[in-house]
Amino acid sequence: MSLKTSTLLIIVILLIDQISKFYIKTHFALNEKIEVLSWFQIAFVENEGMAWGTKLSDFIAVISDRTAKVSLTVFRIFAVTGIIYWLNKSIKTQGSKTLIFAIALILAGAIGNIIDSVFYGMIFDSSLGQVATFLPEQGYDTIFHGKVVDMLHFPIWSGNLPNWIPFFGGDAFSFFDPVFNIADMAISTGIGILIVFNKRAFGSSTSHQETENLDDQNS
After folding, report:
1. What is the pTM of this model?
2. Does any domain span residue 167?
């Protein structure tokens, strides 16, 4: 996969991600939801910290929430810089298409969520109890203190676990609770590809081509 194709893929994912977030911010109040299907909802929540709603300050008590928020955003920016280098190097060394595709997905998702964290506090006002305004006179926070917009919720099943399950039998359980966004999907898909198709991803494109040619000769 070429640099041009990878860049186009990243841009498309970013556009879908940001358009969906802008729509949610300007049409939904915080915690508002609509049921699309019995197992799929559009549910507007904002993520103030890391994955699963946790915060860096939950693990390092001496750091305030606001300092932790900035630290996490800065870390993400450095991580994206590293991913960009990884993508560029993989393209120049003719890495496999699977690897380059996966890295591009991860990079697009990471940039999408960084945009929220860096800018959304300035370009939107609060969504609490109201629909946010784009480019208000004053945003809900300062630069680097924006919240990540999530909206995709799949409450596929909820109920009590069978009594025969050890330790958790009879307990209430739902699958699954997290609310996420397009950027999260891109990151998860990219990581999943690297795990499931590990050998294909980290083999060179040349070796894959040689394998295909050998298969053609034997057939």
Report:
1. 0.85
2. no
